[in-house]
Amino acid sequence: MNGGRHIAILIGASEFPEEPSLSALRCPRRDVEGLAAALTAQETGLFANPQTFINEPYHKVLPAINRVLKEARRQDQILIYYSGHGKQDSAGRLHLATADTEVDALETTSIAVDSLYRLIDNHACRQVALILDCCFGGAAGKDFLKGSVDDQLQQVGRGIYVLTASTATQTAREKDGDEYSLLTKHILHGIAHGEADQDDDGLVSIDDLYEYVRARVPREAPQHPMKWALGIQGEKFVIARAVKLYSLEQLRVFREMIKGLEDKLPDNVYDQAIHVIKAGQPKQDKQFLSLLEAFNENRVTQGQFISRWLALGLPLSVQQQRELVAREQHELEEKRKRELEEKREADRKAQEQRELEEKRKLELEEKREADRKAQEQRELEEKRKLELEKKRKLELEEKREADRKAQEQRELEEKREADRKAREQRELEEKRKLEEKRKRELEEKRKRELEEKRKADRKAQEQRELEEKRKLELEEKREADRKAQEQRELEEEKIRRKIEEDNRWARAQAKSNHQPYFEEKLRKIEQPAEEQRKREFEEQKRREQQRRDGIKSIAFALLGLLVSVLSIIYYIFWGR
Fold first, then answer.
1. What is the mean pLDDT of the chain?
2. CA 204, CA 35: separation in Å to the nearest integer?
3. Do residues 146 and 176 make contact, with C-beta atoms less than 8 angstroms apart?
4. 536 pairs with which residues across the strands?
5. What tens digit of pLDDT does each residue of 31-51 get?
6. Whose C-alpha in 31, 65, 195, 254 is 20 to 30 A from the C-alpha of 115?
7. What are phi and psi for residue 111, nearest 5 degrees?
8. Where are the domains of the chain?
């Protein structure tokens, strides 16, 4: 073996709830469980933890196969096994049914074998075996063979084995009373009993398995297993060990153990044990080697070892072995002749089966033709009935449509009348509201005008009162000015009189000796009086100017008040 990993994907489909036309199967679940046990058995198994899918939908199975192929190394060996219904599409391509398969959508709800081929071709693993225990399994060859069969068998490249339970036209059987499907039953028996090891190398390969089931399956049912080996090179694809193999190191340990017990074992047992160890024939001496292993692992005592060894019988002598080999050779020749005869008989039966199949197909075609014509007649009757029913339904629909339209027309008229009345009512209500609004606006306008008039009258009254107040103040000021003027005039008159008296007195004195002195004093007296008169004249002019300015201010204020009143009157009567 090449040292790579052995990886198995085991698929069983026995229940098809989505498709009533696919009958439930009894054996696929047991097929998967039995094969998983055989592949992992301690003595014969080469696989660890096979992935099993029982009644799973296709969209779970295909991704798992893809992941396994993607992660596989070049030297790994991958086994893909399927037990269930095989269905062919219109092009004759094989599809493997799963729990969610629908026959009317076969291509999209099942596992197409050509999709498996594409997945295998996309990845690095160089050895893949496909075992199909299903009806029409031989149709898988169409998906794997791109040229002729001979061309495919000769090509070098990716190694793919395909082993099927039947040809492309045969069904795979579940026999009453059997625990497993027919092909799987013989596969499990051949592995468990070592009978499938056709070349006696202690290993069960795909080639061994095919030769074994090809000779036995047709004896129980009219189905012939098929095998394709595409692009095979290098080591063969091994499924299991026929018997337990012992390494050279294990045999050396056995020999040293026996030599260490030379004085304790009977001579014949010692000699025979050494002979068995040297021969190293695990298939021929299976029981003796198993006993040696149990003794080495202290699972049996020395006495038990000796008694069981003697109970198994002594190994054959050299002459007996030669006679046995000759007899086996003769039996092998006889076996080959029988197999040749069986093959010829199987070919003849297959030919008869094919002829029978052709006859059945012809009868089936005739029956289908008759059924088709009867179906066409029934369809014609159904069509007529359907047309009559359709006509009645159409008339009924037309009547209903007319009634519906009349009802809609009545409802439309009623709706229009209701809308008209509602519209009139709304218009009347809106008109009433508008009138009320206008009355309210007019009342508010009158109130505003009255208020504004009152405000204008109040302002005019205030303005008149202000003017009266100003006039009163002005009159009082004038009166005060007049009284002050009279007081000043009185004072001036007093001063003037005093000055005149002083002048007279001064002039009288001037005539005396001191004339110069009094003239000077007279000038000093007359000069302030003159200045006083000038100041009074200027003061009088200033007051006259202030009076005129006050009159102008009052005139301007009255003019502004008049403009304000006119503006209010204009706003009241013409502003809106």
1. 82
2. 14
3. no
4. none
5. 999 999 999 987 778 898 899
6. 31
7. -95, 110
8. 6-241, 246-315, 434-574
